[in-house]
Amino acid sequence: MKKDALAGHLGIKLLEVKSGYAKATVKITKQLLNGAGVTHGGTIFSLADVVLAAASNSHGPLALALDVNIHFLKTTKEGAILTATATEDNLTRKTGLYRMEVKDDRDTLIAIAEGLVYRMDN
Fold first, then answer.
1. Start and end of every Thioesterase domain (predicted)?
2. Could you give the number of structural domains in the chain?
3. Which pTM was predicted?
4. Most buried in the list 55, 81, 93, 110, measured by CB within 10 Å?
5. Which are the contacts of 70, defined by CB distance < 8 A and separation ≥ 6?
């Protein structure tokens, strides 16, 4: 995850990684807003994608996303601190399925996402 240049550029900080689980956070700055003045959907998606990557790669073999879908539930604004978690729902030799939740600093659910990864051979 130290090689994830986009996460670093956005200010995403990985807080915790354990087998099949990851947690990360980002503080919403002016640069992370869209034209409507709320947190850009790409920012929220990127945060969810970072925890997906960390959780799915926690087992060792390289895992790459096959499909990720997200549901945006609430908006946030500059100054908000968003925290995302990824939890493993299913793991096979070749795939993994993960549920991601993004919450704000008031513990309000901002987005829910699901990611399917392909686990590469070593």
1. 37-110
2. 1
3. 0.95
4. 55
5. 41, 44, 45, 48, 100, 111, 112, 113
